[in-house]
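Hi R.,

As promised, here are both runs. First protein below:
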Amino acid sequence: MNIPFDIVKGKGHIIFSPPQSAADVDQVKEFIPEESVPYVGEALKRLRNEVVGNEGVVLGFVGAPFTLSSYVIEGVSSKNFTHIKILGFSQPKVRFLTFKHLVQTFSDVCFFLQVLHALLQKFTTSMITYIRYQADSGAQAVQIFDSWATELSPVDFEELSLPYLKQIVEAVKQTHPNLPLILYASGSGGLLKRLARNGVDVVSLDLTVDMAEGRDRLGRDIAVQGNVDPGVLFGSKEFITRRIQDTVEKSGREKHILNLRHGIKVGTPEENVAHFFEVAQGIRY
């Protein structure tokens, strides 16, 4: 997308010139997956050919517009997300004395917001294209990761994330109505009901949300995913079994995809990973 970056060992991603102006955003290109990541489509096709019947499901994934914008505008790994909030919230000093100055100041405020929203829109359009590309290549469900959306207050989430998620879901459903879409946001307890308001088929719960409480707050019409703490896999097999059973029971035994929060931790004993799958696949209702 014409955003030069690198991955540096011990530091993570580095964006060389984080966009800060309308001119910078104009230089960001919409994503064409066939040109930029043809290997993703090839990998999905090979995986789909490997899956026989209902033995497995091929999953795709994309980043959500706000999370992608956060990475790009912050430039490096961030704990406070200061730069994207400055870009989104900053207002010039109020210095008007006449109507002309008032209009100019209002225009400046709109400019700040338009820069961020323009970038969010470019990522939105690009992710719609990318989801469709993955589905056409063999993905049978796609998960959208809005990992950093929970750095926003509820009112700001409704301004800077939710509308773009809705746009993605609505556009994808027009062309791929039967493609299940899953949404995950880390630390999502405070935004849980809002996460379900964009039309996704599945809301993924992180480990900060009790499965039973999450179910109550979301209702039974939407599916849930999660939410065993990956640290549990460092425990005994008996302990792992109990946690799996507890999660399944609290899910209500319907519309539930069992998984580990954000993935497996480095150093997890492989035999415990195998046990997790064996117990999960052995559950019968």
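And here is the second one, sequence first, then its structure tokens:
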Amino acid sequence: MESGRCSLARMLVCRLWTTVSKALFAEFLATGLYVFFGVGSALRWPLGLPSVLQIAITFNLATAMVVQVTWKASGAHVNPAVTLAFLVGSQISLPRAVAYVAAQLAGATVGAALLYGVTPGEARETLGVNVVRNSVSTSQAVAVELVLTLQLVLCVFASTDSRQTSASPAAIIGASVAVGHLIGIYFTGCSMNPARSFGPAIIVGKFTVHWIFWVGPLTGAVLASLIYNFILFPDTKTLAQRLAILTGTAEVEKVEGVEPQKKESQSSSGDMEMESVCQVA
């Protein structure tokens, strides 16, 4: 009996580790690709400066691409603001949210470093670091980033909500990113994503008014989560359920419920199978 429980515990730990590690790699990969292609479109080449439309379309396509590739693996957050919004909406645990943000920042840094390495010195300049235009005040910049991120997060929730009509999250989220860039580039270069701003900034060492690209998007994400999950489409989660999700207990229970009938009927062959699963993980 005790060996059966130990085997079940090992199986659950292995499954959780496999799922989480795959999700973290997906966030790392998606954010790195997003930064590489998106920021790459904003590089100022001597023979041809990028247009606003070019940058918006590239960020649109890059977003659609990474969402399509990693949506089933991790939810395709690719953005600390989106992860925070899901945390506030009780759709992700705190430990997973922290791990997601770390993976996103690491991915953004690697993506920016790769872009820096393959770009000739004449086109590198500040590597697309977000800056506030001279005629825009810091409060205006924060407000713009807040609104841009708010609409992005609302689109993320609407396109991934199982209660809504099924649609393509990749297309909808990509379109919201393009909309944000079409107006936001004139104000702040358009971040909407702290990881997008962090990657290039850490590679070139330029953190002037960098705080704006955290405060604005994160505030907008929280407001969007509150609006969507508590006003537009409130759910029925109890306080106990929300606490269970926050601490990660709900995720463990969900995994435990995958094969409930096998708890009492585990054989020695089942134990060997679970052991092999652990070794693979």
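A quick note on the second one: The two ends are 24 Å apart (CA to CA). Let me know what you think.

Best,
J.
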